[in-house]
Amino acid sequence: MGGYDRGLHRRRRRSRAGVPLLVAALVAAGLAAGGGYTLRRHPDLLASAGVERTVPAQVPGPRPTATAAPASPVPAAGRVPPRITYPLRGGGGFRTADTTGAVAGRSGELLRYRVAVEDGIRNVDVERFAREVAATLADPRGWTGDGRWRLQRVGRDGPADFTVLLTTPLTRGGLCGDPTDRYTSCRNGDRVVINVARWVYGVPHVADLDLYRQYLLNHEVGHRLGRGHERCPAAGGPAPVMVQQTLGLHGCAPNAWPLVGGEALVGPSGQYDDPIPAEDH
């Protein structure tokens, strides 16, 4: 879903309160400690939403003894990626990436953005996540590709026009102004809120998780750039990035990029009345 659109979806049954399970394999030695970022909190990201921000980040305790399992092939690098874990609601503070990146785009208005990850989301290196965000937003198929916009990632203390936040499902509800929705992501004011449940699980109708993550970032940032929702223009063709692909494709094929074949891909203005799943995944 992109943006926050009050009242356009049918009311849903209450979600169960279970904590989501995890998507990838256990972290091998050294990965979780190798990010090289400074743990900092951004002081004002949650204040206006009334979400607690004084709870310290949780320190992982001893791991329980694992039961025996069949051997799995070991990747060539000798390690497996860490699994991302998260509670339904995080600690309320954020780790903010410190690195400033290059300006992406050859011309157009310059907007600067920060990247932060909520406390309680584990096995996400905030600097690595920030690089993934920057790589998507700097791609020539993205918003900086047609000369209308330039985007630059800044650190915690630099002036910023918006912040990309990776949040837990219930924190997402507070920041987006819709506590009943723990499934979608949103843009609300200068916050681009990425629900970690979608970052981890994607959606059933988009098989390529990397493509879905690129779509998710481009869609929500598109709202910050003033774009509204669109509909599928032609069955069988790629979906414009401003279609709410999280909820349905309506005959279009998944697409992560504002530009397709070097040209802007747009659809008719509007959105579908797709139901929002009641649970986070």
UniProtKB/TrEMBL annotation:
Domain DUF3152, residue spans: 81-250
Designated name of the protein: DUF3152 domain-containing protein
Biased composition (Low complexity): 64-82
Lineage: Bacteria, Bacillati, Actinomycetota, Actinomycetes, Micromonosporales
Organism in which the protein naturally occurs: Micromonospora sediminicola
Annotated spans, Disordered: 57-82
Coiled-coil stretches: none
Pfam families xref list: DUF3152 (PF11350)
InterPro entries xref list: DUF3152 (IPR022603)
